[in-house]
Every structure is written in C-alpha cells, then in structure tokens.
Amino acid sequence: MTTKDTGSGELSVETIDKLTENLAKVEELRERLTHVMTHRSTHNAALDGPNQELFGKAATAYWQDAVHNPAKLIEQQMGYWSKTMAHFVEAQKALTQHGLSAPEDTGPADRRFANPMWNHHPYFNFVKQQYQINSAALMQAVDNVEDMDPAEKRRLGYFTRQIVDLMSPTNFLATNPDALEKAVATEGQSLINGLENLIKDLENNNGELVVKLADEQAFDIGTNIASSPGKVVFRNRMMEVIQYAPSTDEVLATPLIIFPPWINKFYILDLKAQNSLVKWIVDQGYTLFIVSWVNPDASYRDVGLEEYVEEGYLTAVDEVKKITGQKQVNVIGYCIAGTTLSMTLSIMKQRGDTSIKSATFFTALTDFSDQGEFAPFLTDDFIDGIAAEVEHKGVLPSVIMARTFSFLRSNDLVYAPAIRSYMMGETPPAFDLLFWNGDGTNLPAKMALQYLKGLCQGDRLARGEMELLGHKLSLGDLDLPICAVACETDHIAPWKDSFRGVQQMGSKQKTFLMTQSGHIAGIVNPPSKKKYGHYTNTDMSGDHTTWLEGAQFHEGSWWPRWGAWLKKRSGKMIPARQPGDASHPALCDAPGTYVANKPKT
C-alpha cells in the first residue's frame, strides 16, 4: 500500500489505519522496554554524568504512569507520529506548489547533512543553518574562557562538544528528512522496526544503551572471520597461545609472537584473508604465534599487571622458545599490550633475560604526560567512579570501555549508527571491523586501576616511578632493536605521544614509522589496498614536529618496510614448522576457545 494524498495535505485514511495497526504493536514493545529499564544493572553514578538521581526519579515517574495508563503512551506516540509526518507532507506540498526555495547556504560541509533537502528545502535548511550557528557560538564561548585551568577547560570543551553533537537535528525524527521519508514510505513500519532494535540493544546490555554497530549474524568466528589455520598449543588462566600453520616450505628461524591488547579480541589482526596481518606475516615465511587473552570475570578481580607480565608475556616467550627450540624470539605489542611489553622488557633487562631479539610497538603509549582526548575521563571524580565500579563488580565491564571510546567519536560511533538502527529501522551492516569493535572484554579490577591511576594519571612509567614485580621500571632499559609504528590520526594513542615515549627508550637501533589513518585502519593496512601511505625519518633527535618536517612520505602500506626490518633480525631459513611439538600437543583449532567468551560481570 502506498501513501495517498487526500488533497488537503493530510495523510489518507488508509495510511492512518496502517499507522494505527503499527502503533498497536507498541504495547508489546512498551512492556519489554519497561521491563528492561526497571531491571537494568546498576553501576556507579559518577560514570554517567551529573544529577543521575534526578534523572532516575523522572524516568521512574514516567514509566509508572505508562504502566498504569498504557493507552496514554500510545495516544501520545500516535499523535506525535501523525502530526510530524503530516507536517512533513504539508511542507513538501507547499514547496512544490509555491516554489519556495532555501536561502543561500554558506555553512561548512558536514556529512551528517548529505540529504539534498538540507540545502534545498527551506524548512530543513533553516534548521541546519541555525544548528550550525548555535554550535559555533557554543564552541566559541568555550574558546573565549579565560583564567581557567587548562585541564578543566579541555574537559569543558569535551562536554560542550558532546552537547553540540547530541543536539544535531539529524538525531531527532521531526528534523531528519531521511527518517521522515522512510517513515512515510513504509507507513510507520521503519519506526516500529527502530523501536524493536532499541529494545533489543537494551535487553542485550542489561539496560545499558550500547548501539549495535554490526550485524552479529553475518559473522562466525573461525569461519568467515579469524579463520587463519592454526592450533592452540598452550593455555593457562590468562591466555591461549595460538601457533599458525605455515604457508611456505621454509620459514625464518626466529619465531614471532604478537601480544594484542586485552581490551578487545585479538582477531583485529585476522579479520579476513584480504586484510589479515596474520596471514600476511605467515605468507612472508615466519613462524607466528599470537596470544588470545582470557575475557575475565569477577574471579579475576585481584589480577594485575604483574599476572599479565608473569603468566602472560614471560610464560608465552618461554613456551614458544621450547616449541621452536630457539633461544630468542621477536615480539610485537599492540596498544596497551605494547605499553605492558615495554614494562616486561625493562624487567627482563634487570633480570638479565635476553630472550627477546627485537620488539615492535603498534600504536603504543609509554609517555602519558599529555592525556589528550582522554583527559575528561582521567579526572579524580571519574576515576573514583571507576574504582567504586570495579570494587563492586570485580571487573571494569566492557560496556563502560566501549562507551568511553565511542563517545570520543560520537557522531561516527554513536549517533550515526543509532539513527540507522532506531530511526530508520535498519539492520546494522555486515562490517567485520565494526563486528570486532563490538566484541569487547572486561578488565580485571586491579589491573584497570593500575593502568588508569599509575600510567594514565600518574605517568609513572615515563617518570621512572613505576614498580612491578620488585623492579623499578625504566624506558632506558629497552636497549634492544626497536621498531615503533604510530598512526597519523590516532585519537587513542596520538602519534606525537608515541614518538615521545620511543625517544626515551635506551635502544641505539630505533626505527619510527608513522602511517596515515587511525588506530585501527592505520595498522590494518594491507599492501593490496594501496590506500594509506607512511612517513619515515631516521633522525629522532628533535621533537615530533621536527621529525615530521624532515620525514619522507612513501606511497602504500608500511607492512613491507617493517617486514624487511624484521627479516634482518629473524635468522636463517629452515624447514617449516608445524604447530606444537611432543610436549605441546594441539589443544584445539585456531582461533581457540577464549576468543568466543562473552563478557560476564
């Protein structure tokens, strides 16, 4: 059935009947929504912003009224939808009949306003331009604030930006032409689908609103994602160690171990064959091992960086040496795993352990003196809220970490997906990177606070004040060959901060590469894409600005350049190794069992 114009600009009787039929479905959805909101998991209010008690009382009163008088809720929704869509149809008709035109639009380009109606329809154009004027005025007001602590001003700017992004007209049905057009075309079905999507997301996250970014049904871990062949050859309570099957007849003698971050799953480096760094490394003739970290529950509350080092890094190195019969290995640390790798290397230096031949760091921070975009989340009140949360639950739930990272890029990772899912009623896209992004993990209570307080807040590693396993750590201890890869637009580990940390390392053989793009796309950048280039400069004596001014730009992926660097430190060619040995039989096929564990709190 299609929408018919009655001649008066109102919706046809047939359309109103269809809308009424759809609205009847709201009753069932309302009951589900009421249930999930009244049974939502609780956490420390400091993590949600100000005046949570007031918000909670208002929400409780609203839902109590809805429970006792559901017809009122349906009537309100029906009236809202009907008036909104009737107004939209009337505006379209007026535009057609009277030849109304939008005023000249000289505002900035913004991909949120891609629909032509934002430029040509007088109503939407007015709304857009007024929003842009208001946004600029708010941000200018923040910039003009004087006599304010820089950290507080940065925090003010962050929360002001959050308000600006939240109030975008694209986030509201009445001022989103894409959503209105689809609602009219589907006679309200897109809105019903959107409400269903919203309730599912709330139900799947115990009442926490975490927008689903990808279609989870489109991926099967081990089948069409994380599918490189290999075996789990070691397992303890902290990790599974995967050894990948060789794809060449000969391999380089020195094995390679990748330590991925334990904030997400390891398979960011093995999404699919076309962009799998795992497959590429194996195809270059390396015996590759990767650590798949456990997804901790409350029983891990007392696990700290000590256990990650002893039962993770040092154990993995020892087991790989036993399996391969080599005295040394090469290692990679990605993000927080790179930070912890630097601490492990300091400990090993002080213990006289020379098991590591070379170390590569992907987007790793060791100097936290500039907290960058994370500054709003590293104030005492927020960290105190984290402390209360982990004390109560034993872990820092993955949903909190996901929300924190998402709101650093709220338009891309919160509002745009929410619009597609909740207002357009669409199924999330089958996008492997976004699927991985939503597959988060918990953090053990002790480890989370060590990282946030000791490293992020206190910058104790770069200051030489970090103590771990009886050792006082120093970046100067890292005197082995080092290659560091940073990303130009990385908002999690800014390249200038990564550069500053590498400068403090004691190695006389340091290579620093900066690739285009961000924290993930810059690393997962296969040569076949020919998409992002990279910068090199052997002179690290100046600051990051001086380094970049003297850097040479290279087209294409950094992978081959790093591969050539690593090959020089990987020994001679030997017959290819199959996974495991007599004392390390295969426990299961890759990608193992830990990767499938969902967060539990």
Question: What does this molecule look like?
Answer:
The structure is a single chain. With 601 residues, the chain is α/β, with parallel strands linked by helices. Helices cover 44% and strands 11% of the residues. The chain contains 20 helices and 17 strands. Helix 10 (277-283) links the parallel strand 4 (256-259) and strand 5. The longest helix is centred in the N-terminal third of the chain and has 29 residues, at 70-98. The radius of gyration is 27 Å and the shape is globular. The chain starts with 12 loop residues before the first helix and ends in a 12-residue tail after the last strand. The relative contact order is 0.12.
Quick structural gist:
The chain is of the alpha/beta class. Helix content is 44%, strand content 11%.
Which secondary structure elements does this structure contain, and how are they paired or packed?
Layout (H helix, E strand, L loop, with lengths): L12 H12 L1 H13 L13 H17 L1 H29 L18 H4 L1 H22 L6 H17 L10 H9 L3 H16 L25 E6 L3 E6 L5 E3 L3 E4 L17 H7 L4 E6 L11 H20 L4 E6 L1 H16 L4 E7 L17 H14 L1 E2 L1 H10 L2 H14 L8 H6 L5 E2 H13 L9 E2 L2 E2 L9 E6 L7 H9 L6 E6 L18 E3 L7 H6 L2 E3 L4 H9 L5 E3 L12 E2 L12
Parallel strand pairs: 4-5, 4-6, 6-7, 7-12, 12-13
Antiparallel strand pairs: 1-2, 1-17, 2-5, 3-16, 8-9, 10-11, 13-14, 14-15
Helix pairs in contact: 1-4, 2-3, 2-9, 3-4, 6-7, 9-15, 11-12, 13-17
Mean pLDDT: 85
- Separate helix tally: 20
Q: State the separation between the terminal residues, measured CA to CA.
A: 47 Å
- The fraction of residues assigned to DSSP E strands is 5-15%
How much helix is in the residues? Answer: 40-55%
Q: Say how many strands there are.
A: 17
The largest pleated sheet is described as:
11 strands, mixed
Describe the strand arrangement of the main beta sheet, using strand numbers. Answer: 15-14-13-12-7-6-4-5-2-1-17
- Tell me the structural class: alpha/beta
| Apparent shape | globular
- Give the uncertain stretches in residue-range form: 1-9, 49-74
Rg from alpha-carbon coordinates: 27 Å
Domain AB hydrolase-1: 282-526
Subcellular location: Cytoplasm
Pfam family, one: Abhydrolase_1
InterPro entries: AB_hydrolase_1 (IPR000073), AB_hydrolase_fold (IPR029058), PHA/PHB_synthase (IPR051321), PHA_synth_I (IPR010963), PhaC_N (IPR010941)
